[in-house]
Amino acid sequence: MSQAFIKESDGEEGPALPELLVSPHRNLVTPAGLKQVEATVERLQSALSEARTAGDRAAIAQIQRDLRYWTERLRTAEVIAAPAASGKVRFGSAVELKKLDGERVEYRIVGEDEADPAEGRISYVSPIARMLIGASVGDVLALADGEAEILTIR
Fold it and tell me: Domains along the chain?
């Protein structure tokens, strides 16, 4: 068959990229996490428009893939309000720990997409968060780098 009769792509799809994997866990988010996801979707929609205007097929493909992921995360988001003071660690809690060497560390338990361990925000499905959830002030936990006592929960 002559190449003249083969329909070429209109350039909108770009090269096939692997899809971003969506977590099998519930998509719990804090109110701040929901705003973060919404802002990401808006930013990607704007970037997609710019890439289409520029005719950048590679950028279009990547942005479309990312937009599919973040649109799904927005659609499935379950907003969990800040926990009431119950004396127990819950989703959204900020927990201050004191390690045996006296070092203090604070973690806030958040959704997977808003986690940033370097900033002290850990996913509710992380091993540390799983140990913390349900614990109370004074409880001692066996962390990978030694024991730590829960000082405060807010």
Answer: 26-79 (no CATH), 94-153 (3.10.50.30)
